[in-house]
Every structure is written in structure tokens, then in C-alpha cells.
From TrEMBL:
<keyword id="KW-0808">Transferase</keyword>
<comment type="similarity">
    <text>Belongs to the thymidylate kinase family.</text>
</comment>
<dbReference type="GO" id="GO:0005829">
    <property type="term" value="C:cytosol"/>
</dbReference>
<protein>
    <recommendedName>
        <fullName>Thymidylate kinase</fullName>
    </recommendedName>
</protein>
<dbReference type="GO" id="GO:0004798">
    <property type="term" value="F:dTMP kinase activity"/>
</dbReference>
<keyword id="KW-0067">ATP-binding</keyword>
<dbReference type="GO" id="GO:0006233">
    <property type="term" value="P:dTDP biosynthetic process"/>
</dbReference>
<dbReference type="InterPro" id="IPR027417">
    <property type="entry name" value="P-loop_NTPase"/>
</dbReference>
<dbReference type="GO" id="GO:0006235">
    <property type="term" value="P:dTTP biosynthetic process"/>
</dbReference>
<dbReference type="GO" id="GO:0005524">
    <property type="term" value="F:ATP binding"/>
</dbReference>
<dbReference type="GO" id="GO:0006227">
    <property type="term" value="P:dUDP biosynthetic process"/>
</dbReference>
<feature type="domain" description="Thymidylate kinase-like">
    <location>
        <begin position="10"/>
        <end position="198"/>
    </location>
</feature>
<dbReference type="Pfam" id="PF02223">
    <property type="entry name" value="Thymidylate_kin"/>
</dbReference>
<keyword id="KW-0547">Nucleotide-binding</keyword>
<dbReference type="InterPro" id="IPR039430">
    <property type="entry name" value="Thymidylate_kin-like_dom"/>
</dbReference>
<keyword id="KW-0418">Kinase</keyword>
Length: 231
């Protein structure tokens, strides 16, 4: 989407291991001499992401009850990450004028597909519901907000039971990582996982690659290098 840059979204339910996979893939790419930029959403510590966090922890009244309201906050957080004229290519501290146009890979821990999957799961709609919330999310984020469509979306497709165990373990280890209302809702996580698989099958908004929990990050890195070379 951006000149000389490969935009890659890594998706999956809460606790799937997206951050771990993103870190390992980034390390492999950097070892191969590739410039890598990383960003995770929501961007906690910024306005809209902190409002999302407050809502997910029951601190924003009935806002959490609105799938459209929550989806809008998530979308505004992504919109706020764009740099005028440079887009996501300017996210890292080393993105100076000389380096912005160098070939590199941008890894995003969550992107628009997360809004589509969770919103479909919350409203219990199919991803291809005519005039449904998935269509609305795409219009809001890609059309109205002008967010870029990823060159590749990677779905980390793990059993929800494993993701739940990981989220619980993370909470037990770090008191600041208390599970939010979405993470505590097992049926929601199951529906979200199903929505993600449907999006991947449909190749929603561009190409998708589905991987399992035991995926070799070096193999993923090689796939991204091949995609970058093919641009």
C-alpha cells in the first residue's frame, strides 16, 4: 500500500499469541537485514485507546453495550496512528526523511479485521450480511477514514481454550493485565474465532494467510520477504 513498504496485519482472538508471533517474526526479519516497523492496537496511552480500555473494564456506563460505539472508538484509534503524507511508514523513531522510502515491512498487531471479527461476533451477524456491521466497518475505516488495506493479513488461528489459558496466565503474572469484558466472555471469543476464519476464507479486503499456534516464525518471515521482493 505504501511505497517500498509491505503492510502486514497479524490477527487473532485475545490470548492467541499475536505479540509473541509479531516479535519473533520481526526478529527474524531484522536478522535478515530488513527494516521493520511495529505497532500494536489499541495504542494504550492515547486518547481513544484509553477510552476503549475504560469501556472494556466497565467504566464508561452503557457504552460497552453498543457494538457500533465500541467499533468507532477502535477505528478512531487506528485513524490517529496515521501520519499525514507518510501514513504508517512514519511510526518508528528511526523513520527519518532518508529512511521512509527504504524498503521495509510494517507489522501491525491487529488492524481493521479485528473490528470486523469482533463486531460480527458481538452482533451475531455473518460476515457477508447485506448492509451488516462488517460492511459498515469496512466503509468506516477504509472509505471514510482512508485507512490502508493490508498487503497481507495473517490469522493466528489457535483453539479458544488455549487462548483463554494464555490470557488467564498473563493476568496472573501481571496485575496490570486484568482481563477485560471481551476476554472474559468465552462465547464471544468462540464467535470471534469463527468470524476470523470466515474472513480468512473469504480473503476479506485482500490476501490472508492462516497459521496455527506452532507456526515457525522463520517460515512466516520468509513468506513476507518473498512478498516484499515481489512488489
Amino acid at each position: 500500500m505504501f511505497q517500498n513498504a509491505l503492510l502486514v496485519a497479524i490477527e487473532g482472538v485475545d490470548g492467541a499469541g499475536k505479540n509473541t508471533l509479531t516479535s519473533a517474526v520481526a526478529c527474524s526479519l531484522e536478522t535478515a537485514g530488513v527494516r521493520v516497523s511495529r505497532i500494536a492496537f489499541p495504542r494504550y496511552g492515547t486518547l481513544h485507546a484509553d477510552l476503549v480500555s475504560a469501556a472494556l473494564h466497565g467504566q464508561m456506563g452503557d457504552l460497552i453495550e453498543s457494538a457500533y460505539g465500541m467499533a468507532t472508538l477502535f477505528a478512531l484509534d487506528r485513524k490517529g496512528a496515521l501520519h499525514p503524507g507518510l501514513g504508517l511508514a512514519a511510526l518508528t523513531a528511526d523513520a527519518c526523511e532518508e529512511s521512509v522510502n527504504q524498503p521495509h515491512i510494517i507489522l501491525m498487531d491487529r488492524w481493521v479485521a479485528s473490528n470486523a471479527a469482533y463486531s460480527a461476533a458481538r452482533t451475531q451477524q455473518s460476515i457477508d450480511e447485506p448492509g451488516g456491521i462488517v460492511e459498515w466497518v469496512a466503509d468506516l475505516e477504509f472509505s471514510r477514514f482512508g485507512l490502508p488495506v493490508p498487503d497481507l493479513t495473517i490469522l493466528l488461528d489457535v483453539p479458544v481454550s488455549l487462548a483463554r489459558e494464555r490470557a488467564a496466565g498473563r493476568e496472573a503474572f501481571d496485575a496490570s493485565r486484568t482481563r477485560d469484558l471481551y476476554e472474559q466472555d468465552s462465547p464471544l471469543q468462540e464467535r470471534t474465532a469463527a468470524a476470523y476464519r470466515a474472513l480468512a476464507t473469504a480473503q476479506w479486503q485482500g490476501p490472508w494467510l492462516s497459521v496455527t499456534a506452532d507456526v515457525n516464525p522463520h517460515v512466516v518471515a520468509e513468506t513476507l520477504l518473498s512478498s516484499l521482493s515481489a512488489q
